[in-house]
Every structure is written in structure tokens, then in C-alpha cells.
Amino acid sequence: MHVAKGLAFVLAAFLMCVTDPVRSDDAPPGGDAHATLSIRLAYLGKTYAEAEPLSLIDKIYTDKGIQGARVGITEDNMTGRLIGQNYALVEAIIPEGDDIKPKALELLRSGVSLIVADLEPADLLAVADLPEASNAIILSVRSSDDRLRNEDCRRNIFHIPPDWAMRADALAQFLIWKQWRKWALISGERPKDKDYAAAVRRAAARFGGKIVGEKTYAYVAGSRRTDTGHQQIQKQMPLLTQGLGDADVIIVADVEESFGDYLLFNTYEPRPVAGTHGLTAVSWHRSYEESAATQMQNRFERKTGRIMTERDYSAWLAVRTFGEAVTRTDSADPGVLRSYLLSDKFEVAGFKSQGMNFRRWDRQLRQPILLAGPRALVSISPQDGFLHPKYLTDTLGYDEPESKCRQRN
After folding, report:
1. Spelled out in words, what is the top-level CATH class assigned to the domain 165-282?
2. In the chain, % of residues over pLDDT 90
3. How confident is residue 229, by pLDDT bands cut at 50, 70 and 90?
């Protein structure tokens, strides 16, 4: 019985996308002419301006996310042809300055009700609050904003990437396991930097860490790469990290790439660096190879010619989530799929050694978090010894009693 269930789960792992069903008379050879299910899935995004990486090693990609969805749709159709399913990806990516609502309405009115959303919080909420989207399922693949899972949660939004609280908790568990309980916190001045810093403070209080010193780095706009840049950094970073107390580790909150990489080997006292740089808490990393992840990494690179980023992974996993749900329910009706996604029966595989599912109270995907250095995996959280009565992954982020989400049904 376990073997049969395992084989079914592996088969379902290849099926990943969806929207309103249409029965087609164009069946695959040898199949039932009236059995083909045509399914459309929308990828809705904007071409937001993003910070240039600090290091020349990190290439600038303008197609993060969508490439993951494209790989997913290809894999869907490889298996879909065998079982009478046909998947199509509707790509709707507009300029940053445009209003997202007309494009969202166009998709919804055309019958597309299952959406992979590569949107920042304001645009994501604008789409979710459209009356036409009330019965849609929106899988967010971009934002880690804690508020979207709490006071700004929406009934029709599910979250694929971990939020800031999950990332900070994953890091905190490892630091406590290492007995590195004294932390210095350096954060940038931008909103996402402040959000991550707040999550680090919450994690310290939750797991027994102590923040012994804090500083804010004021980024001055200008050339990020100059001929004498290393000399300036070699002088600035020791000054920035001086007077932070007797810390075991320096935690940096620099989400938008202003200074974080410069801290490595440039601190006033010899200290490891973690947070957004150094040791990072992520859902995917180019060095990750466990649980057959190497095959996913290679498959993505053959298809796209580049590495798989965290947003690519989130988009691929979102497509896979839809496919898993439609396969198990034999339905593409949003109401049926939503009930299944929130049920105890739902699980989606994602190369993390366990099936992943959604929290009912905030619709966040439960998942292990990778702790990676620049070139290698270091650990995976939850760490040993951090227990929970139901799911160990619920030791990461906001558990049900802590949640401020009021749209739970």
C-alpha cells in the first residue's frame, strides 16, 4: 500500500499547473476523444526595478520566476499527454509603472482563475481585492512580507516563499544549536531591511538569543563598483562593526543589496556573518543537491542556460502545487481545489525530503529552510530539538496562536 501511494506521489510530482477546465475533442493518440482536460494557468507579474548585485559573480537576471513556471509547464505536459491533460501557461507581465488591475481583470474575465503572482505586496493586494478575484486562487511567489500572512492576509492568497519570520527563525534555531546566543544586528534603512531586522528581534526573543548591539547602515547612493572600492570598504566596515558588544555573530539585514557582502572578513572583531549575507536562510540555493535536488538544478540549467534562483523555485513549486491538486481531485474548479489545498490530504514534493502543505490559518506553505553559505549548504532547519505537537516546520514563523490573520475560512 505504501509502495502504491509512493508511486502515485512520484507520478503526481510531474503534474503542475491549472485554471478553468475545458474538455477537448483533440485527444492524444489512443486516448478517449472526450477525455482531454485543457487547463490554463496565468503567470501575472511586473518588471520591477531590482537592485544590482554587489558582486560581479552574481549575474543580473531579468526573467526570475517566469523561467521556473515555464519549466513546470513543460513537465506538466510531458505527463499530461499520457493521462489526457493539456496545460497552457498564460504569461502576463507588465511594466512596473502600469496599473496591475486591468491586466488581472482581463485574465479573470477570460476564465483564468488560478494565478501564479509575481507581485509586490501593494499590487498583490490590489489583485486579490478585485470582486472578480473573490473565488480565484492566487499563489504568491515573490514577497516575504510578514504582514501578508497576518493583518493583511487575504482568503484567496496562498504563499509559496517563506516569510521573514520563517527565515529569521530558521537562522535563530541554528545559532542557538551552535550556542551562539549573543548577536549583533546591522540593518539597512529600506523597508524590507527593517522588516527582516524586526523578524530577527522576534526570533531572538522566541528562541533565547540576545541582541547585544544594533546599528543602521546609511547607504549613500553612488557608484557601487569603483577602482578603489575595496580600500573604502576595508576602512568603512571595521568602523561600522566597532562597538557592537561581545557578539558571537553579526546578523545583517540588507535585503536590497547595499552593503551586506562587504561585511565578510571586514568586521572589527573576527566574527561570522549571517542573515541576508554570509549564512543565509532560503528556500532554494544553487549549491543544494540533497533529495534529488541535483536533478532539478541540472534540468533547469539545461532548459534556461542559467542557475535556478529562489524565485524560480517558488514559481516552479507554485505550478507544481496546482498540478498536484488538480490531479488528486480530478477537478480544476477553484472551490474544489481550495478545499483540497487546505486539507490534511494535500502534499506537494519539492526536493526537501518531505511532503509540504499549507497552514490553514494564514495559507503559508510549510517547508524546511536551507541554511547556505555562499558556496555550500551548511544546515537545514527546523533543527534537532525544536519540537512541535503537529508539524516541526511550524516552529518556523507564526504558529496558529500567534497569527493575526482574520480571514481564515
Report:
1. alpha beta
2. 75
3. low
